[in-house]
Amino acid sequence: MNRPNVLALLLILTISCNSQEKEKKVIKQHKYTNALVSETSPYLLQHAHNPVHWYPWNEVALEKAQKENKLLLISIGYSACHWCHVMEHESFEDSTVAKIMNDNFICIKVDREERPDIDQLYMTAVQLMNQRGGWPLNCVALPNGKPFWGGTYFRKEDWKKEILGLASIYKKDPNRVIEFADRLTLGIQQVENLGMNMQDADFTWQDLDNMVDAWGERFDNREGGSDGAPKFPMPNTYSFLLKYAHLAKNTDILDHIELTLDKMAFGGIYDQIGGGFARYSVDNSWKVPHFEKMLYDNAQMVSLYSEAYLKFRNPLYKEIVFETLEFVQRELMGKNGAFYSALDADSEGEEGKFYVWNKAELKLCLGEDFEIFKDYYNINKKGLWEHGNYILLKKKTKKQISKKHTVSVSVLEGKIKAWKKILMKQRDKRIRPGLDDKSLSSWNGLMLKGYIDAYMVFGEEKHLAVALQNAHFIVNTQMQNDGKLWHSYKDGSSTINAYLEDYALLSSAFIRLYEATFDEIWLRRSEQLVSYSLENFYDNNSGMFYFTSKLDPALVARKMEINDNVIPASNSVMANVLYDLGTLLDKDNYKQRAIIIANNVRPDMQKYASAGYANYGNLILKEINPYYEVAVVGKDAHTKAMELNQTYIPNKLLLGTSQSSEMELLQKKYIQGSTMIYVCEHKVCQMPTSNIMKAQKLMK
After folding, report:
1. pLDDT per residue as tens digits for the range 362-387
2. How far is CA 699 from CA 233, 246, 379, 574, 645, in A?
3. Which one of 81, 146, 189, 203 counts the least CB within 10 Å of its CB?
């Protein structure tokens, strides 16, 4: 590193730390230091001492590229990504590779979780070029940001060859490169940007039947989920399928859902000792997880298993919900109520080392119980992974194991609790996977909703208490007076102007929090976020929302997020929010906007029949079925609502009050000294009743 760079870094460290002593200590400890040292993202900080002259995505880096006419080398990943770590170790920590990168490019590191807008843009480019994508995501772009080359993980020698070739091509024939980049950018701008569908929005069951029938051809009815490997949980998809199958009385799909939920709960993808789900399984039987644990997966899985418990009444699902929430509160929650983002797949440089076990260790920990433990958790060929280590997974129920080993189910359950306590204590002695302790507003919204969904089903006050703590953290820390949100929070600092996903997912969570508490402040908060979104993200020409605010600096394309993925698309979430908020607040213009969004994607739903439209399917279900407004009014409103919610009725929206209210749907319904339930549809109510069973029958 040359002297001017060292002086610049000393200035950065002086400003950020205000400490000469700390500055000297950092330089002394690390041979290399780059501009990422001032960032808060754990992923960016992992690369702060690479010999690569990394910059964060900012005006300084972009202006430098323009001034020096250097190509941008944009590398995107996240802290829990195993192959990101591998490529860093092989290439970005290597001084010879770094020299090639530094000499020929302005190198920019991006945390995809902090900057999903940038990730979305360059992921689209790579998918257009290669028909696939993933992380680490590596793109080379013109100084103006237009991409012309990209890929994912590269071995060191391949990486050196590729980037040297790209630098050479740009020097020899820049016009050819510029022409290709212009064409590719035009393609990026056209992907997932919808126009207004002028056909009538006459949704029918056939729309959903066609879509679900096509999915059904890819169902794995032996191991659950979709055919093949890897297997992703896709909770949003199964939440829709559960509602659809229940309302359509489709027993085949209900059987597939139950199979999938059972297999995931029994598999290695679920942490059988500490609770919580890993990102996905690399095989077709949910055995070997990609060991990273993401907040957004676990949030949605809690919601899914809570909902499924109401339908199937399987005690296993309650166990999964409670253990997963215990994991989240123990390992992914700060004292201020904020939820952290992720746990790494790796510890001590090895993927999964924290979670797997060898026989000797288990025998030592469990003593005479090892034999029954071995049978229950498959310390055999089924559970064997690599290097003599085992992934704990289940193939038999408690009832089957208790019968085989001639112990009662209650005795076995006592043993299982003891085993988990022993092994958790043993596991706590290990070096833990890295924690990504930034808090993202969107993912917090998902987890907030997960806690509320669990509370609404199981009635545990501690789950509501956590939900309220998190909701107040969001309002007091991430939400501004005009409804504007920050996207990220870490170490007392809120940063990055929020994206549509933040507004949509938090609005949805606040509506659900209203249903759980009947505190109208949460409806007002939700409406505030929606109003801000309509002002700053809405496209009047198409009726869709852009992913980025009109206040954000422009990228080479302003994208719309249309397709659901592991997280439902921000447009599909916002459409459901508009529909529900419009129902609760009696705002037909909100509901009309929601229908426009669903109608805009309808042609693609029919054309592609993809799970990428599951959450729009939820909205269509609200249109083609009765969608009940259930008003519970009176002194015991909350208690009655919780009782009412113990039957699976997915096509209802709860509202209520223990006193008089000015809300349109609650006016003139309060009768002092009594609690009445009004089952309504399109604001037309049937005769009120105080009887839970009678109210439930009115919705069948």
Report:
1. 999 999 999 999 999 999 999 999 99
2. 31, 13, 48, 26, 12
3. 189
